[in-house]
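Hello,

Our lab assistant flagged a job as stuck in the queue for most of the afternoon. It eventually completed. Since we weren't sure the result was trustworthy after the delay, we are filing this so someone can double-check. Below is the sequence as submitted and the structure that was eventually returned. Let us know if re-running is recommended.
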Amino acid sequence: MINTFQTYPAKVEQDDKGRVLVTFPDIPHAATDGSTLDEALEEAIDCLEEAIAGYIYRNELIPAPSRIKRGQYTVSLCAQMALKALLYQSVREEGISKVELAERMGINEREVRRMLDPRHGSKLPRIEEALHVLGRHLIVRVEAA
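-- returned structure --
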């Protein structure tokens, strides 16, 4: 199964005061705005990352992004947050604890906590190793913006 939490659809509207509002159909509590479209979409990146971090901190299932519909914009997570979300979701799907993942990897449980912490700058090879231990492998794809 391929999971992705990289790009989410965003709905963009202008309010009655001229502000540009951005909401996410898949993440109902995430919304932001800006004075211009560019500013609002830039703010939307931070908003989306904070929302995904919130799911991780609350130990909740992260909603998968739906298909992009006509008229919607796309907002992408940074690679680090996307990988942490994938690792978090993989741990949930396996139904294992951080301690068990640490044991499988032969590392200290603190390191697993850091890998799952959205605010900690984890190294890609370590996250890739954790995914491998969970029976997943990382596929990287680059698309035109």
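-- support follow-up --
The delay was a queue issue, not a problem with the job. The result is valid. The radius of gyration is 17 Å. Residues 37-57 form the longest helix (21 residues).
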